[in-house]
Amino acid sequence: MELKRSAIRFASYNPRKISEESRKTLKRGIKKFGLVGGIVVNKRTGFTVVSGHQRLSVMDELQKYNPDTKENDYRIRVDVVDMDEKSEKELNILANNPNAQGTWDYDALREIVPEIDYKDAGLTDADLNMIGCDFLLQTEEENNIAGELDSMMSEVNARNEAEKARRQMERAAKTAHMKEVKQQVKDAAQKQAQDMDAYVMLSFDTWEAKADFCRRFGYDPYDKFLKGEVFDGQVERVE
Question: Strand pairing partners for 48?
Fold first, then answer.
């Protein structure tokens, strides 16, 4: 259904936030594709936004809507639910929870990227490097074309050898910098993946065996996780 913007209110408890860079990406997408996916509001709590706070905020900016004076009020399509406040908050979290979302198939994504404007899809240069699309560096064919254009321009403008050498040095420096940035992104991704694997699991045949182990080292038998560095120190003291 459609509602006037002035009839909708943001949830004061909304735990989501957005960076300025991500907001620019979202705004670029809405400008190109329009507002897709819909805004979810809860009728029972006075048409409170359950999902879509950032998109609605961007729409307000594009429509020049003033929430204080209601100036430039506009109509917007929304999905309406009718639930109590507890359920509303649960749905608010679920709608943006990574645990309830899928993950990228990098092989499939890598096939799609050359066919699209990746910036309109919200991807960054770092994302391209992560999935193995080397768009930060020019291809050999692009380098050859650039070199031929440089030669043609040199002949037309009668540029001297010193000027050509300067341009080549600048180009080499830029290429080296781009390679360095690419390597830094890959190194950071590898480090993050390694840190995610920094855990080990212990298992016991019975709960009583686990309880004896925990009491021996001063842990609550109902604990699910033990800090490795702390346990390591305790093992040294026992020895």
Answer: 9, 42
pLDDT tens per residue, range 107-153? 888 888 888 888 888 888 888 887 877 654 445 555 566 566 666 66
User: Do 133 and 113 form a contact (C-beta atoms < 8 A)?
Assistant: yes
Of 178, 117, 115, 112, the closest CA to residue 143 belongs to 178
Choose among 47, 103, 111, 102: nearest CA to 76.
Answer: 47
- Report the DSSP beta bridge partners of residue 86: none
CB atoms within 10 A of CB 78: 22
Please indicate whether residue 237 or residue 108 has the higher confidence score (pLDDT): 108
Burial label, 87 (beta-carbon count in 10 A; 0-12, 13-18, 19+): middle
Query: Which burial class, exposed, middle or buried, applies to 39 when counting CB atoms under 10 A from its CB (0-12, 13-18, 19+)?
Result: buried
Residue 165 backbone dihedrals phi, psi, to 5 degrees: -65, -40
pLDDT in tens, 151-173: 666 666 666 777 777 888 888 88
Q: In this structure, what token pair is assigned to residue 176?
A: 């080296």
Both tokens of 25, joined, read 């990406």
